[in-house]
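Lab notebook, bench 4. We co-purified these components, and the gel suggests they stay together. Before we commit to crystallization screens, I want a quick structural picture of the whole thing.
Request: model the full complex, all chains together.
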Amino acid sequence: MPILEVKDLHKSFGKTEVLKGINFKMEKGEIIAVLGSSGSGKTTLLRCINFLETATEGSIYVDGECIFDAADKTKISASEIRRRQLNFGLVFQSFNLFPQYTALENVMLAPKLLAKERADFSQNKKKIYDEIECNARNLLTRVGLGDKMGNYPCELSGGQQQRVSISRALALEPKVLFFDEPTSALDPELTNEILKVIKDLAQKNMTMIIVTHEIEFAKNVADRIIFMNEGVVLEDGTPHDVIENPKNKRTQEFLAKML
Amino acid sequence: MDKWLSLLDGFQYNLVLFFGTIAAAVPLGLLICFCSMSKFKPLSYLSKVFVWIIRGTPLMLQLFVVLYVPGLVFNMPMKSRLTASFVAFIINYAAYFSEIYRGGIESIPKGQYEAGQVLGLTKTQVFMKIVLFQVIRRIVPPMGNEIITLVKDTSLARIIGVAEIIMSAERFSKAGVIWPLFSTGLFFLAMCGVLTLIFGALEKKMNYYKN
Ligand SMILES: Nc1ncnc2c1ncn2[C@@H]1O[C@H](COP(=O)(O)OP(=O)(O)OP(=O)(O)O)[C@@H](O)[C@H]1O
Ligand SMILES: [Mg+2]
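Here is the predicted assembly.
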């Protein structure tokens, strides 16, 4: 069974239709890179899947469970939406770290708040918090920030901030982790830092969808590449198929410009 | 000495007006702010018009309106001049505070809310744990300004006959002794000095990060 399935997803802002029926499936452990020119709807797709926008048509399934169906107008409670949202993690282009918290606190904030909803929270508070902290420290150490845990975001470089934000998303153990151009705000040197972290996650079989303009990276890391253009998926196949032998003229033009 | 004591007596009114106004206008301003940011258009227009009127007319005029209009129009005269000044100050400052709050809240980037949301936080948690501190940090300097203005504005209560410090001093100047009138400035200076120190310390404490 696919871990994620997106069926016929449409999204309009007013009269402009930005997504015009997106379909794809992905298996556990798979890595998909999403390519496409500016304005093709990549960010909108990620935002719709992550409940930051409401798609106008279509449905989304996680492990066979329908988590979104535009046709179903029954009201879903806020807590149920949050539960469904937690299937996913999202890493933003602009990091969006919380400036008043240290790197470690940024990673621990959500797990600590979520732990309060556990039935055994009041009895095991100390133990639960210790576990959360230990886990957060491990995550930050793994991305090479063992010595920066007590620093505030303003004291970190862009690449370090992005690594904190990846750790923050990982701390909630999402089934699928989404990246929206995680390196676009970084210079080339820092870009490699982040790409290394993503490669490391790939080795650990993390299921990921990565919107990126780094074609070389997509080719090396992704199992599959989706090429989007004007709100539709034009290509969906292995890096070899899409990059070396694109079927579509539009894809060829795009790749010619990028390479 | 008795002149100083009588000035001090007058300044008590300024202090009462000051602290009373802060205590009521800080929360009332928040209410107005939420109204003006409400998605329910009539409510937001109403509060915007309200803020426009309050900010667009002199506080001195508002004092008169609050003192006389309830009696003249609704046949419910104000119980006392002090009450009337309270009402006028609270309304006036709540309007200004609401705009400061709104500026503070709107200055928080959308990404902060979205990051909280995708981490599974509730709306309340996003506000309390992420946004609130950043808003407070942004509004401390303008609030400090406004609050220091309030210290001096309390003397406007004199215009509707509240025996605050300047009115007390005028009694002496009418009798030919002018120094008490000028000395009132010392009271205001002292008060503003203390507030400047408090707000300075607060700002410094919250400025442990840059952004
Ligand atoms: N909130 C919005 N309201 C109106 N139009 C929007 C909104 N968000 C996105 N759009 C429009 O949708 C289209 C697709 O935008 P989107 O951000 O998804 O593109 P993208 O593929 O991520 O581009 P880029 O590579 O530049 O990030 C654009 O034309 C954009 O103007
Ligand atoms: Mg984008």
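The mean pLDDT of chain A is 93. Worth comparing against the SEC data before the next meeting. The radius of gyration of chain A is 19 Å.
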